[in-house]
Amino acid sequence: MLAAHPEGDAAGADLLAEVESLLDRRERLLDSLGEVYLQLTSQVVEREGAWRDQASLAGEFRTLLDRNLVWMPSHAPLGLGSVLAWPREVAALLASEEWRALPGAAGAALAGHPVLLLALGLALLLWWRYLGALRTRLLELGPRRCGWTQYRFHMALQALLIHLLLVLPAPSLLVGAAALLRGLPGAGTLAPALAESLHHLGVLLLCALFLLRVMSPEGFAAQHLRWDAGGLRAASDRLRLALPVVLSLAFFVRFLRELEDAADGASASRVAAIALALVMTALAVALLRAGRGITAGSVLARYDRIADRGGYFLFFAVAALPLLDVVLEIQGFHFTANALAERMLPSLLLLGVARLVLDTGLLGLV
Q1: What number of other Cβ atoms are within 10 A of residue 104's Cβ?
Q2: CA distance 218 to 266
Q3: Is the pTM higher than 0.85?
Q4: Taking Cα atoms as reference points, which of 324, 209, 240 lies closest to residue 274?
Q5: Cα–Cα distance list, 346 to 12, 45, 48 (Å)
Q6: Using an 8 Å Cβ cutoff, are 207 and 241 in contact?
Q7: Which of 305, 364, 280, 342 is CA-nearest to residue 66?
Q8: Alpha helices, H only, the chain
Q9: Helices (H) and strands (E) in the chain, counts
């Protein structure tokens, strides 16, 4: 028994040495795997940076092409076959996006910004709380209430500001949703396309609601400038009837264009852009007919006859732009048509705002 102890000690020492060797190998293996993981992580980061640089360069190159090829044909001409194939192209373009991931990502983004949601809710509550006071103040600012002897130019500016505050919530919600979607992870190209489209829609909706508010019976045009009530009513009725169609088409066209930029080469938005241009032409003609002589009976009629004629000439020129856009799109001048289409509806709306600003300035000189 005593003689067996040295052999047992030797076996234990061998086993311990083997275990230590295995542990050393395991440690070296873990160190090697850690180095490989760090190398792979750095490569992923480098490739992501390279991808972002390439995407930025591609965007700059696309902008360069848009700017320099604006007067050159860039697409095949449209025909009846393109119109018939349009529903299939739109369905394929929409089906290629990750729609299922969007609600979950949007919900996670909303849950991650509680302070922003609380601030938005408080702003809406304040707007609702002072809505009646704003409307009352708007009526008090009119010269028919206070009289022309007590009327001052700053009252016109206050009235315009109140008009803007009254229509601000809905466009602000659209712009806020666009800002939230713009930084949304995990939604692919769908979230950025929706963000740009909602932002575009919010700006157009703000201008349109502002004009409708100004053209209302208690609005600035009737109460302060004394524009013709019948002409204002006819123009606002036509504008209110056409706005849902125009804004929906504008949103859809912008959304398709954003998806096409990501899809790199699709052309589903061209037919929709032609439909929008035709609707814009009909709206411009209707507004021109309804607004004929709308300022003839105003207190500023004798001061701005030249401006009135010039404004109608500009409005008629902008009204002819949609037809030019249709011709260019059909002939394949897509970049030119795109540049015109992005400026058509804002130009029509801004012309009305510019006329109000001009008359407001003249009102201060009376």
Answers
A1: 11
A2: 47
A3: no
A4: 324
A5: 88, 42, 37
A6: no
A7: 342
A8: 4-68, 80-95, 101-111, 114-129, 131-141, 143-146, 153-166, 169-182, 190-214, 220-223, 229-263, 269-290, 305-331, 334-363
A9: 14, 0
What letter represents residue 309's amino acid? R
| 107-119 as b/e: b if 16+ CB within 10 A | eebeeeeeeeeee
For residues 356 and 214, what is the distance between their CA atoms, to the nearest angstrom?
9
Residue type at position 38: L
Q: How far apart are CA 80 and CA 103, in angstroms?
A: 37
Nearest Cα residue to 305 out of 346, 352, 357, 362: 362
The count of other CB atoms within 10 Å of the CB of residue 166 is: 18
pLDDT in tens, 18-73: 778 888 888 888 888 888 888 888 888 888 888 888 877 877 776 666 566 566 67
What DSSP character marks residue 168? -
Structure tokens at 87: 């529903």
CA–CA separation, 326 and 136 (whole Å): 46
Q: How many CB atoms lie within 10 A of CB 176?
A: 16
pLDDT digits (tens, 9 = 90+) for 297-351: 444 444 445 445 555 565 566 667 777 878 888 887 777 777 777 776 676 667 6
Rounded Cα distance between 194 and 271, Å, is 20
Closest Cα to residue 168, out of 195, 131, 217, 219? Answer: 131
User: Residue 192 corresponds to which tokens in the numbers above?
Assistant: 């950025």
Length of the chain: 366
Residue with tokens 């860039």: 74
